[in-house]
Amino acid sequence: MKKISVLIVDDHALVREGLAKILSMEEGISVVGEAENGERAVELALKLKPDIVLMDINMPGINGIEATKMIKNEMPEIGIIALTIHDQEEYLFELIKAGASGYVLKDIRPDLLVQTIFGVARGESFVPPSMTTKIFSELARLSSLSGRNSFPQGLTRREVDVLRLVAHGDSNRAIAKKLFISEKTVKNHLTNIFQKLGVEDRTQAAIHAVKSKIVEL
Amino acid sequence: MKKISVLIVDDHALVREGLAKILSMEEGISVVGEAENGERAVELALKLKPDIVLMDINMPGINGIEATKMIKNEMPEIGIIALTIHDQEEYLFELIKAGASGYVLKDIRPDLLVQTIFGVARGESFVPPSMTTKIFSELARLSSLSGRNSFPQGLTRREVDVLRLVAHGDSNRAIAKKLFISEKTVKNHLTNIFQKLGVEDRTQAAIHAVKSKIVEL
DNA sequence: TCTTGTATAGGACTTAAGCCCTATTTTCAT
DNA sequence: ATGAAAATAGGGCTTAAGTCCTATACAAGA
Asked: How far is CA A180 from CA A30, A147, A159, A161, in A?
């Protein structure tokens, strides 16, 4: 069993130290870095490629949500757990949209935090029980809204269609035929997809799609 | 636990029926199709995408080795187990080269065949104990041959280098710089790679590389 | 109502990608 | 020694891919 590498992000040195202490006690976890603001968080995440980022939301400059977006954009395989002081439900959906996999209060019991880290490393997602109700109602709202968006990386439904075919090895012409649209439209979608995923061409997009499990192998 | 889907290929209806009977008794296995020759085998394999193909070697027309190559070329994730009447070691290495993962005699005990199927589905490889010696000596020969070839799909060492970078999302120019060769040479290698893998462009090659585990994610 | 997001598509352009040849050099296997 | 495979590279060519901009139509949120 490999240790789970964790990057701690918080603007308060005290909080960072506390978290590091708690996590260091744990056998299967190793803290590989600490960042004191959003910029450093993104920088370190890309450099250290940790399994998990513990991300404080309230930070001066680039906040936790922005940092989450940036990291997820570059390395979708990194799991991000958001930390908040109190129940700030206004951030919840923004965070989910940004790609965070967990949302925990800072006064969480250490053993539960550890559990959450292991869970997210396994690909699961966590929110505090007090918020599950919110989640469900939001989910209901979204699905009644004839399934608007809620796609990975902010991709639209159509963009996901196109990306899937790209990851299948199809050319623009082939995609156009399969989706009954013009090659021009396919190109437009692709330009948007590349921009959203932060990649340069279809090959990188295909790889990204596989890595971030937008498509299955 | 999902059932393992199996395609049976043999030109003798009796053998097919026998195998199907045996395998149908097994809980975790479901026979999804049968083919009576190499052409049908390739056709059905691509259509049904079974986990495992049980492939007879001696068939009129496209034989088992050719069919194995074709299937592996199109869908490297399908596991292929070769069936032979008697110890025909002259085919063994050809089969391994073609991408077969198992090599069993037709008079194998049913429970061992089942075991082999489960093993191959898990990504393991099997040859009869009587042939392991052959394997080892061949392996020794090849490695004494200063590690010549023995690369997936008949790719050369350099081609694997190039393919790895393609699957990393690099452009021809980037690959050229990293490998200290000209862009022209990269293109030449790529043309050869496409031909060998049976794909049309770098995106398909990248996907193929990931699927056939030439590169890791 | 006005605006925003999505899907569609065309014009016009640049360039990376890919193909087909030929050719040289090195390295091995025979 | 000789021949084959592998790695290198260039010429010359075609086309797919990708960018930037504009534009229309529709749906839905504010």
From this structure: 50, 22, 14, 12
Is residue A216 in some structural domain? Answer: no
* Side-chain-side CA neighbours of residue B78 (13 Å): 30
Q: Are residues B66 and B15 in the same domain?
A: yes
Does this model's pTM top 0.90? My answer is no
Q: What CATH number corresponds to the domain at position A54? A: 3.40.50.2300
Which one-letter DSSP state was computed for residue B150?
Answer: -
Supply A126's token pair: 């966590």
* CB-CB under 8 Å, A201 with B206: no
Q: How many CA atoms lie within 13 A of A50 on its CB side?
A: 28
Q: Is A216 left (phi over 0), alpha (psi -120 to 50) or beta?
A: beta
Task: Using alpha carbons only, give the angle B62, B35, B11 rounded to the nearest 5 degrees.
Answer: 65
Residue B179 lies in a domain: yes
Asked whether B67 and B75 are in contact (CB, 8 A), the reply is: no
Footprint of strand D on the protein (CB under 7 A): A 145-146, 148, 171-173, 187-188, 190-191, 194, 200-203; B 149, 156-159, 179, 181-182, 184-185, 188-189, 201
Domain boundary among B81, B109, B127: B127
Tens-digit pLDDT string for chain A (217 aa): 678 999 999 998 888 998 999 998 988 999 999 999 988 999 999 999 999 999 988 887 778 888 888 887 778 788 888 888 755 555 666 666 667 777 788 878 888 889 889 888 887 776 654 454 444 444 333 333 323 333 455 677 788 889 888 998 999 999 999 888 999 999 999 998 888 888 889 999 998 888 876 776 6
Tell whether A94 and A162 lie within a shared domain: no
| Residue A186 contacts residue A179 (beta carbons within 8 Å) | yes
Question: Does the CB of B144 fall within 7 Å of any strand C atom?
Answer: no
Mutate to test the interface with B, among A78, A207, A210 (most CBs of B within 10 A): A207
> For tokens 């803290």, what's the residue?
A31
In this structure, the answer to whether residues B120 and B140 fall within a common structural domain is no
Residues B162 and B119 in one domain: no
| Gyration radius of chain B over CA positions | 19
Question: Structural domain of residue B175, as residue ranges?
Answer: 133-211
Same domain? For B12 and B31 the reply is yes
Domains held by chain B: number: 2
**Ordered alpha helix ranges (H), chain B:** 13-24, 38-48, 64-74, 89-98, 110-121, 129-144, 157-166, 172-179, 183-197, 202-211
Beta pairing partners, B9: B35, B55
